Amino acid sequence: MSLPTQAARAAAVAKAVQPIMSKNAEEARRRVIQLYKAWWREIPIAVQDFQLDISVRQGRQKLKELFMRNAHVKDVRLIDMIVIKGKQDLEETIHIWKQKTHLMRYFYEPPNKPPTDFLSKFYAGK
After folding, report:
1. Is 90 exposed, middle or buried (0-12, 13-18, 19+ CB in 10 A)?
2. Cα atoms in the 13 Å half-sphere on the side-chain side of 32
3. Any residues with CB less than 8 A from the CB of 83 and at least 6 apart, and which?
4. pLDDT value, residue 86
5. I want to staple 98 with a disulfide (CB 3.0 to 4.6 A). Which of 14, 22, 67, 102 is the partner?
6. Contact, 79 vs 22, CB < 8 A?
7. Is the pTM for the entire model greater than 0.85?
8. Cβ-count burial of 83 within 10 angstroms (0-12 exposed, 13-18 middle, 19+ buried)?
9. CB of 124 within 8 A of CB of 115?
């Protein structure tokens, strides 16, 4: 008996891998657009319900920024996983399972300054 070649094994694995939800890129794109629209409609309600310290416009700008962060992704399975996580976050927001601090974390931008003095470098492990 001969061992199967690496190409044959790769073909068998590729055949066994099934898509998570979408069958092609167009269907995945539709799901992303549906999720974006659902978040777009939810932002004014979330700003009011959670009494966020932002405007609806700022919330929608952040939404666009977060979606554009993953615009480069082309793998349908990865897109589906990101959409599933987005739907989970949306559901948690709608049912008010999140707290105000969970939503405000999206707007916190940590400082990107590298440490300059000895103690700061030491504490950072550099």
Report:
1. middle
2. 22
3. 21, 28, 31, 32, 35
4. 95
5. 102
6. yes
7. no
8. buried
9. yes
> pLDDT tens digits, the chain, 126 residues: what are they?
455 566 665 555 555 556 678 889 999 999 999 999 999 999 999 999 999 999 999 999 999 999 999 999 999 999 999 999 999 999 999 999 999 999 999 888 777 777 778 888 888 777
Amino acid residing at 66? L
In the prediction, which pLDDT does 48 show? 95
Non-local CB neighbours of 120 within 8 Å, separated by 6+ positions: none
The whole-angstrom separation of Cα 121 and Cα 49 is 42
122 is written with which tokens?
A: 């030491």
Least Cα distance to 27 among 76, 84, 81, 89 occurs for: 76
SS3 82: helix
Provide the token pair at 66. 């977060």
